[in-house]
Amino acid sequence: MIIYKSEEEVRLMKRSSRIAAQILAELKAMIKPGIRTKELDDFAERRARELGGRPAFKGYRGYPASLCTSVNEEIIHGIPSSRVLQEGDIVSLDFGVFSEGFYGDAAVTVPVGEVSLQARKLIAAAEAAFYQGLGQARIGGRLSDISHAIQRYVESQGFSVIRSFVGHGIGYSLHEEPQVPNFGPPGQGPRLREGLTLAIEPMIAAGDWREQILEDGWTAVTKDRSLAAHYEHTVALTARGMEILSLADEIKAQPILQG
Ligand code: MF3
Ligand code: CO
User: Fold this and answer.
1) Cβ(41) to ligand 1 under 6 A?
2) Looking at the whole model, is its pTM more than 0.90?
3) Ligand 1 pocket member 60 (CB < 6 A)
């Protein structure tokens, strides 16, 4: 069952989503050769609490950290560790926040120092794919219009979309219905209506889309070890159209920071 949100519920989701976005922006500024992924995790957890929330992933199905840090061929769910980021790496940062009864979820892939042209193109394609999907979402349309637009764009750039992990409804839970695949034909699935809140999250690979889970039971890597990138926002379909909730702007104006 899809839980459609009222304007008030969307307003509260914007608060948790903005905390996630703000922290991702701060993490992005910390990314440089020599930093350990565990340092990023510690920072994210501390900041979430400072900003009046808590990390949403910690303990979720036993996930052992607050942040996901997925490096190079790692697609998602990379567990922060003593691993030191090296010049030329790319790292996907995925962070969820729970506050005031609601979840927000966002992700971005960041270059570590100078990276290859291919890596830059892949990162840009993940972000652009998100906007392609968003651009297809309109009241009265269908959910898979988003999925189709993402796949079409990603493949037009010579990259592939991951199949085994998908976007999702979000709000009262981190994962609500419906699932939002990044592939498939248009014109299918539930009709898009006001109050729908989604985490739209293209996960893409430079090579083949098949993935494999590492021994730790979490880290998903491309089977062919090609580079992967991820881009995610929490969004809401309102009377004004699709709104991105996980934008860092304006958070400084919110009283939550004064607490
Ligand atoms: N953004 C991912 C998702 O929505 C992150 C989940 S990590 C987990 O599925 F640890 F919570 F599983
Ligand atoms: Co998500």
Assistant:
1) no
2) yes
3) yes
Cα-Cα-Cα-Cα dihedral sign, residues 209, 161, 178, 188? negative
In whole angstroms, give the CA distance from residue 109 to residue 201: 12
- How far does residue 219's CA lie from ligand 2's centre (Å)? 15
What is the three-class DSSP state of 125?
helix
Please state, in angstroms and rounded to a whole number, the distance separating the CA atoms of residues 235 and 11.
11
Q: Mean pLDDT for each 10-residue chunk of the chain (259 residues)? A: 98 98 98 98 98 98 98 99 98 98 98 98 98 96 98 98 98 98 98 98 98 98 98 97 90 44
DSSP 78: P
| The pLDDT value given to residue 259 | 36
CB 105 near ligand 1, within 6 Å: yes
**What confidence score (pLDDT) does residue 252 get?**
52
Integer Cα distance of 19 and 22 in angstroms: 5
CATH 3.90.230.10 applies to domain 7-244:
yes
User: Does 173 contact ligand 1 (Cβ within 6 A)?
Assistant: no
The alpha carbon of 207 and the centre of ligand 2 are apart by a number of angstroms equal to: 22
C-alpha dist (Å) from residue 89 to 16, 83, 138, 222, 230:
29, 12, 37, 15, 14
Contact 204, 220 (CB under 8 A): no
pLDDT of residue 188: 98
Domain ranges, ordered by start, for the chain: 7-244
Residue 232 CA, ligand 2 centroid: distance in Å: 7
Residues contacting residue 155 through CB under 8 Å, at least 6 positions apart = 161
